[in-house]
Amino acid sequence: MHVRTARLRDADALADLNVRAWQRAYRGLMPDAYLDGLSATDRIGLWHEVLDDPPRRSGQLVVEEAGRVAGFVLVGGEGLEADATRGEVYALYVDPECWRRGVGRTLLVAACDRLRSAGFDDAVLWVHEGNERARSFYDATGWRTDGTRRTEEVWGIDAPEVRYHRTLPPPAA
Fold it and tell me: How far is CA 121 from CA 82, 88, 89, 96, in A?
């Protein structure tokens, strides 16, 4: 496994991985017709924007395994604010074929390191309230829910979310 900064040429792979991960992770939490209708082609433009003009104090990281993108994480200032006082993990997705192989943990360590190096001491992330797999993962990696909830429009559908928080660990050796 190799962590690196995402590149513009990764846009197609990231769009495809993002859609497949959503279709698998949110099955039963979101309408099947909605998930079945997601298209990587519809997401490529968004990925070009994210990778072409990233916000200040942000990071777009991927894990490569055997020459292909196995997962990604996007981080930066809370709420995409340039002057944020704490960091945020905006998104972390792993190719469903790579689940339970350490890709998510590797990405989360890299995300925390990137946020710490950007000057943040603590960070938040939001998780779909019913996504028990993700919630267990974050619980096991030192994140704790702080009781804050919201409903966020994500890719055209309302999703109930719960916020997690943690003090960032020192950078990994």
Answer: 15, 11, 13, 31
pLDDT value of residue 105? 97
Reading the block at residue 18, the tokens are 């993002």
Residue 12: C-alpha distances to residues 31, 40, 157 (Å):
25, 8, 23
Q: Are 64 and 70 in contact (CB under 8 A)?
A: yes
Q: In DSSP terms, which residues pair with 74 in a beta bridge?
A: 60, 91
Give the domain ranges of the chain.
Answer: 2-167
Backbone angle region of 145, left / alpha / beta, with phi > 0 → left and psi within -120 to 50 → alpha: beta
Number of other residues whose CB lies within 10 A of the CB of residue 163: 17
- Residue 7 Cα distances to 3, 12, 23, angstroms: 12, 11, 24
The mean pLDDT values, 10 residues at a time, for the chain of 173 residues are 95 97 94 94 92 86 95 94 90 95 96 94 96 96 96 86 94 64
CATH of 2-167, one of 3.40.630.30, 3.10.150.10, 1.10.10.60, 3.90.1030.10: 3.40.630.30
Q: Is the dihedral of CA 82, 72, 130, 32 positive or negative?
A: positive
- Quick check: pTM over 0.90? yes
* Sheet architecture: strand order including 68-77: 2-5, 59-65, 68-77, 87-94, 122-128, 157-167, 144-154
